[in-house]
Design a protein that fits this description.
Radius of gyration: 20 Å
CATH superfamily of the largest domain: GntR ligand-binding domain-like
Keywords: DNA-binding, Transcription, Transcription regulation
Shape: globular
GO molecular function, one term: DNA binding
Distance between the termini: 70 Å
Pfam families: FCD, GntR
Number of strands: 2
Number of domains: 2
Strand order of the largest sheet: 1-2
Protein name: FadR family transcriptional regulator
Number of helices: 11
Order of helices and strands: HHHEEHHHHHHHH
Strand content: under 5%
Structural class: mainly alpha
Helix content: 55-70%
CATH architecture of the largest domain: Up-down Bundle
InterPro entries: GntR_C, TF_FadR/GntR_C, Tscrpt_reg_HTH_GntR, WH-like_DNA-bd_sf, WH_DNA-bd_sf
CATH topology of the largest domain: Four Helix Bundle (Hemerythrin (Met), subunit A)
Length: 227
């Protein structure tokens, strides 16, 4: 049907995509979709933003390339960062630099556990318990890929309990490299000698013991002798 003389002009497609990217960024930065959360489905975004499917698809793809969103097959699209630092960090922390990845993990995770012991809320403790239970269930089931993801969810819950938004954003930016380092450590198989008990770390956070929480968080990230 031809557009009537009173209808507003339709912006060019490129402009619509840029505007949609900006709207998605605004909602992420406003905390509507926090780091670690799943964004609405494509049909839901189409309805909420008032644009077509192709526009939404291109905008989401642009934010994936920027390292802000991550598409997980069969699960949905998740917010992994509130900025565009993630791809830069991911390029630096490649599989051939795993020693550096472990050192970065230690820097983040030890301090996060220490702060979490000081700042955790009842809601944080519930999230930690749920994440720990899911991690152990994945281990018992022998599902390596599921275990890697569950382990990351637990560590993200620790970081969230630290209540330091900048720490959470930086930690999210190295998520791909952390996932790679853990998958490499597992070697695709969940064998008994590779199991690390995180219940003591969670107990220390619950007890409000920052030094013990930091010690437990760092115990499994010690560099190999001679490294």
């Amino acid at each position: 049907m031809p557009r009537s003389a009173d209808s507003p002009p339709v912006p060019p497609r490129g402009q619509r995509i840029r505007e949609t990217i900006a709207q998605l960024r605004e909602r992420i930065l406003a905390g509507e979709w926090p780091v670690g959360s799943r964004i609405p489905t494509e049909p839901q975004l189409v309805a909420a933003l008032g644009v077509g499917r192709n526009t939404v698809r291109e905008a989401v793809r642009a934010l994936q390339h920027a390292g802000v969103l991550e598409c997980r097959q069969g699960s949905g699209t998740y917010v992994v960062s509130t900025d565009e630092l993630a791809p830069v960090v991911a390029r630096r922390l490649t599989d051939d630099r795993m020693t550096e990845v472990i050192e970065v993990r230690r820097a983040f995770e030890v301090e996060a556990a220490r702060l979490a012991a000081l700042r955790r809320t009842p809601e944080d403790l519930a999230a930690l318990d749920d994440a720990l239970a899911a991690r152990e269930a994945a281990w018992r089931g022998g599902r390596a890929e599921e275990f890697v993801e569950a382990d990351l969810v637990l560590h993200r819950a620790v970081v969230a309990a630290a209540h330091n938004p900048m720490l959470a954003e930086l930690y999210a930016s190295v998520g791909t490299a952390l996932r790679s380092s853990l998958a490499q450590a597992m070697g695709g198989a969940l064998t008994p000698e590779r199991h690390v008990d995180h219940s003591r770390m969670v107990d220390a956070i619950r007890a409000g013991d920052p030094e013990r929480a930091a010690r437990e968080a760092g115990a499994f990230l010690e560099p190999p002798a001679g490294a």
